[in-house]
Specification:
Elements lengths: L10 H17 L2 H5 L1 H23 L3 H27 L5 H27 L6
Helix pairs in contact: 1-3, 1-5, 3-4, 4-5
């Protein structure tokens, strides 16, 4: 794993940032934009994925970083679940659903690999 000097260097954060843009685009669509509860929830949850990576990193403690990565991964799961609702209600088509779902799953895997790496790392960030 390459050297990480800021949370912006973390691939999972970079991909989560792209996901947020895609979620906001999806929620601008006609029917989706009027379902305020679902729209707001999926937007907040997508933002939570990237925000918790950043917040955990900035805590400057490996233990705290790992804890926030788990929270971020949980939010990624919630985004995936909410995408099913959006797809079931025909707010997004199957192709867009698959694209977004694949993106979230990739981010979740990246977060998990980072957790594993940090858990095995002997050098504690101080």
């Amino acid at each position: 794993m390459g050297r990480i000097n800021s949370f912006e260097d973390i691939k999972a954060w970079q991909n989560a940032r792209k996901l947020v843009v895609d979620i906001y685009k999806a929620t601008k669509q006609q029917e989706f934009s009027r379902d305020y509860g679902l729209k707001d929830q999926i937007q907040r949850t997508a933002v939570s994925v990237m925000s918790n990576i950043a917040e955990g990193y900035e805590r400057n403690s490996k233990k705290e970083f790992i804890r926030f990565l788990y929270i971020s991964r949980g939010s990624a799961g919630e985004v995936r679940s909410l995408l099913y609702v959006a797809n079931d209600l025909n707010y997004i088509d199957k192709e867009f659903f698959d694209q977004l779902s694949d993106s979230v799953l990739k981010i979740s895997c990246q977060i998990y690999r980072l957790i594993e790496y940090l858990s095995k790392e002997k050098q504690v960030k101080s």
